Amino acid sequence: MWRDVPLRTSYDVVIVGGGVHGLACAYYLATNHGITDVAVLDKGYLGGGGSGRNTAIVRSNYLTPEGVAFYDRSLALYNTMAVDLNINVMFSRRGHMTLAHTDSALRTMRWRAEVNKLQDIDSDVIGPDEVKRLAPSLDVSPGARYPILGALHHPPGGIVRHDAVVWGYARGADHRGVELHQKTEVLDILVEGGDGPDGKGPGGTVTGVRTSRGDISAPIVVNCTAGWATLISDMAGVALPISTRPLQAAVTEPVKVFLPTVVVSGSLHVYVSQTDRGELVFGASVDPFNTYNIRGSLEFTEELAGHVLELMPSISRMRLLRQWSGLCDMTPDYSPIMGFTPVDGFLCDVGWGTYGFKAGPVSGEQMAEAIATGRTPKLIEPFPLSRFAAGDLVGEKGAAAVGH
User: Fold this and answer.
1) From CA 111, how far away is CA 103, in angstroms rounded?
2) Does the global pTM surpass 0.70?
3) Could you tell me where the DSSP H helices lie in 9-92?
4) Residue-wise pLDDT tens for the chain (404 aa)?
5) Which is nearest to 53 in space by CA: 45, 64, 65, 61?
6) How many C-beta neighbours within 10 Å does residue 309 have?
7) Which domains does the chain have, with CATH numbers?
């Protein structure tokens, strides 16, 4: 689907990270701006990080006006992606339902619904009867341990085949002249003139990258490495307020489709959807510790299964086939860090936490515009690194902690 070409010693743009964000950025640089002297570097294989380890849910019913506008643009790009990339990405509009089990949770759902409506997003609060109609397998009885008082219903939400998205962007970028280099690890970011003792940091200028296959000169380097974001940024002398935590997920054996919508419970820290093949895909919130270890745990499986059965007791005899884990780059306000940094020529598209996949298309589009024009596009203006020092946070925890 893409070429295997020799690594050159110079490019106009080097993108570190061959997931959906890095590939989308390369694709839109070539498609929208005619910039094709671009290299995408990945120490493993394309889509081998978070892009291949997520649960492929897309939506735009976030909590802040800035987040809603941003993710709505991404959802629009997903809706036309099959045609734009000429590949079946298996986008399935299922609807996205966030359950409320308490009065306070129901108030939060109404808050989110009103923010969504003001941004012209199709989102509303529904009662238990409508929840039951949309997802008959859910237990909405008053005697349930966690009674369902209502839900935030977002009809445009759905699921996408994550591998197809990666392949589509990779093939599209390659066909336009972008070079994709797998098994190419970045060992250092080359910076000159910085204020730090090693000549890096604020005030410096990027001159290229050092890789496991040799040095590359480039005036622009973009960090799209998700869970490894701080390691790459530290190489340039740019400190990021990000902690890396594992996020686990699991899948069952396939059965006849009975769950037509995506179901999320923030109170129970669980979400579930059913694929076209019939598997139930489950996930939870990030593990409560920092690590680069992505091994699964029995504790996660037991807790996840217990909470899912509290929502849908009828699936108790289904068999869990496998579980996996990925790395999440968590910021203090659960919003990303995008755009330019104090090091000239070094840009970041990181800090996505548990919701990076759904943001891939719009992130690539907006980062490509920033690179091509030298200006910060309006959609990503709320997400600069400088907001943490200024205290101008974009608090998305209420919509993103287990939102997926």
Assistant:
1) 12
2) yes
3) 20-33, 65-85
4) 899 999 999 999 999 999 999 999 999 999 999 999 999 999 999 999 999 999 999 999 998 899 999 999 999 999 999 999 999 999 999 999 999 999 999 999 999 999 999 999 999 999 999 999 999 999 999 999 999 999 999 999 999 999 999 999 999 999 999 999 999 999 999 999 999 989 999 999 999 999 999 999 999 999 999 999 999 999 999 999 999 999 999 999 999 999 999 999 988 989 999 999 999 999 998 998 999 999 999 999 999 999 999 999 999 999 999 999 999 999 999 999 999 999 999 999 999 999 899 999 999 999 999 999 999 999 999 999 999 999 999 888 766 655 55
5) 45
6) 14
7) 13-57+163-241+333-400 (3.50.50.60), 94-156+243-330 (3.30.9.10)
Task: Find out whether 375 and 235 touch, Cβ atoms under 8 Å.
Answer: no
Measured between alpha carbons, how far is 391 from 65 in angstroms, rounded to an integer? 18
> What ranges in 86-222 are assigned the alpha helix state H?
103-118, 128-134, 162-175
Q: Name the token pair of 374.
A: 């030298």
> Cα 34 to chain center, whole Å?
26
CA distance 148 to 353: 27
Distances in Å between the alpha carbon of 220 and those of 162, 217, 230, 238, 392?
Answer: 28, 9, 18, 15, 27
CA 158 to chain centre: 14
DSSP 8-state secondary structure symbol assigned to residue 8: P
Tokens encoding 11: 């490019």
What would the two tokens of residue 340 be? 């330019």
* CA distance between the termini of the chain: 29
How far is 148 from 152, CA to CA, in rounded Å? 11
Residue with tokens 């996020």: 247
Q: At 344, phi and psi to the nearest 5? A: -60, 130
Torsion 61-64-68-70 (CA) sign: negative
Could you write out the DSSP letters of every residue in 259-305? --SEEEETTTTEEEEE-TTS-EEEEEPPPSS--S-----HHHHHHHH
